[in-house]
């Protein structure tokens, strides 16, 4: 996993490229490489994971010197692809980078369908004077871009584009929707004017200043391949086999690996599967806690690990850390992020890096494929788990700003309300948001996060299963629970999902009340908000309404990112 960046056009220069590379150096501290020729400037920050030798440094140039690759991510099935390509390409390294380039040379854009991995990459074709860029199926790895002064800029992070001279202006429509309905933007949008992202499962061609984008991963079509309804036992056996293979592929690394664990079903399943793999039996397990028994999952984690040989690394996060760390986190995220849980989770990666563990696995993706959120049961349009009423406070917005807001309309390609909700969460809300948060916190600490449960084979197969495999007798993630019961006790396997893992609501209302008031007070100078109504809602929260702290953290996020009053 690394950082990529570049400028195509008359603004391409070594000076601008170096500033951009410095801005995202945390993504790849092991080597910084550049390619500069005429109106093309490509850069790469390398975090060495597979083939750590200098031979695999980037930008990577093909044997024929025609293609130059900048690649962020991992191709987990690179060994199988290399074997398939052996007669077509003379490999000089043992890296997945070279395999990716060879695959593109042989198959062009069709190579994407052969890749099992997380990736965002750009390939410059010196003959055609054209750029090809692509992003993995679910958008695990980021790709941001902008046009300015007849030049095309791209990067792994938004701050990198700012460092290259792109002006920092708010995208008011996205901000308005954020306050109005909790949207973090559509897959191509960002919170900053003029800056877009290539959506997951899309590629683009750039030639002579013209961009053409295309959706290469059509999830709905892939689901049709699983139309045949199979017996429960066969589904379970097939899914188990896919899970084991996904874990096996994600253990391919030339640096130490660990994994993140909580007391929930998903990471418990991850723990069991990791320990089925010979390479996983003694690797570090990481978890965070806040020392609040109402939220902490540490007792569950310790119980789980009694039956394994995985050393547990416990990281405590407390309210006193939030004030300083929130500024640091905001600078890494570049857009609104998920509050205290995101910061607490980030501490895990900091600890892992200190331990020399560079790659971590986690359990993201099970709720979306097996219908694990509470609102799937109710079949409503909520996007937040565990709240009793709307956490959004649009009435505190000034009328002119509120007029910009329009609740996003998500595609509904299936004839099932449940499937459409799952589809929304996979491609428009839950997963894109979580992946962005997690990419930034892992890369901020120069570590790589791998998501074995987001292997496309798993997601497609699970998504396509009938309702009674997902929810049965009110039990959600039914098949997954049945599968994990083979490894774990019933009190873990059938425990209800806990929506909250940190005391954010209490910390913001009590422990950090003065700081919260100070941060939100800075927003009063902005013409987005009705100061009187905002203050009323804030006091209502402090005094009695703490069902959700989402709106409070929204306002803090805004203060952190926009800094209306820099003295606070």
Structural account:
The chain is of the alpha+beta class and 568 residues long. 39% of the residues lie in helices and 17% in strands. It has 24 helices and 19 strands. The chain has a six-stranded antiparallel sheet. A six-stranded antiparallel sheet has the order 4-5-6-7-11-12, covered by helices on one side. The chain has a five-stranded parallel sheet with strand order 15-14-13-16-17, with helices on both faces. β4 (60-61) and β5 form a beta hairpin. α2 (78-85) packs across α3. It is globular, with a radius of gyration of 23 Å. The two termini are 35 Å apart. The model has no long low-confidence stretch (mean pLDDT 94).
Give the structure's gist in a few sentences.
By secondary structure, the chain is an alpha+beta fold. It starts with a strand and ends in a 6-residue tail after the last helix.
Helix and strand layout, with pairings?
Elements lengths: L1 E7 L5 H10 L7 E7 L2 E7 L13 E2 L5 E9 L2 H8 L10 H12 L9 E9 L4 E6 L8 E5 L2 E5 L2 H6 L8 H10 L14 E2 L4 E6 L2 E6 L3 H5 L8 H18 L7 E4 L4 H12 L8 E5 L8 H8 L6 E5 L5 H12 L6 H15 L4 E3 L4 H5 L3 H5 L20 H4 L14 H11 L2 H15 L3 E3 L5 H8 L3 H4 E2 L2 E2 L1 H7 L5 H4 L10 H8 L1 H9 L9 H13 L6 H13 L6
Parallel strand pairs: 13-14, 13-16, 14-15, 16-17
Antiparallel strand pairs: 1-3, 1-9, 2-3, 4-5, 5-6, 6-7, 7-11, 8-9, 8-10, 11-12, 18-19
Helix pairs in contact: 2-3, 7-17, 11-16, 21-22
